[in-house]
From TrEMBL:
SUPFAM superfamilies: Ribosomal protein S8
Gene3D superfamilies recorded: 3.30.1370.30, 3.30.1490.10
Protein name stated in the entry: Small ribosomal subunit protein uS8
Name of the encoding gene: rpsH
Function description: One of the primary rRNA binding proteins, it binds directly to 16S rRNA central domain where it helps coordinate assembly of the platform of the 30S subunit.
Length: 132
């Protein structure tokens, strides 16, 4: 078993690979942060659903990808802040993805939020990922 230094990047790559290969379901090792990120991705309408399966060390997140015909709801997903290079932004400098059509996931003092929610709450933080 390989040691994963960036579990969030691993999750993003698994999702990206799954939608590019037109898979319906992708399994990801569970963590609370990944769970929260998937809640945001689901709320924003990029995935159909996800659920937690297994217990303890074998706990997994089973993600059901969303398609309209053969086109994935996710066009692209990108990890921004990495363990070796953290990227932070104040509320005034929060980026917009595709002029606001995409979503920025931000880790703030009020938890994981989208860029729109962070602007409303008036908080900045670590930019986790872009999804469009």
């Amino acid at each position: 078993m390989a040691i994963i230094t960036d579990p969030i990047a691993d999750m993003i790559v698994r999702i990206k690979n799954a939608f590019m290969r037109k898979h319906k379901i992708v399994e990801i090792p569970h963590s609370n942060k990944k769970h929260k990120i998937l809640e945001i991705i689901k709320r924003e309408g990029y995935i159909q659903n996800f659920e937690v399966s297994g217990e303890g060390v074998n706990k997994k997140l089973v993600v059901e990808l969303k398609y309209k015909g053969t086109t994935s709801a996710i066009t692209g997903i990108k990890r921004i802040s990495k363990p070796g290079l953290k990227v932070y932004s104040s509320v005034n400098d929060l980026p917009k993805v595709l002029s606001g059509y995409g979503t920025v996931i931000i880790s703030t003092s009020k938890g994981l939020l989208t860029d729109k929610e962070a602007r409303k709450e008036n908080v900045g933080g670590e930019i986790v990922a872009y999804i469009w």
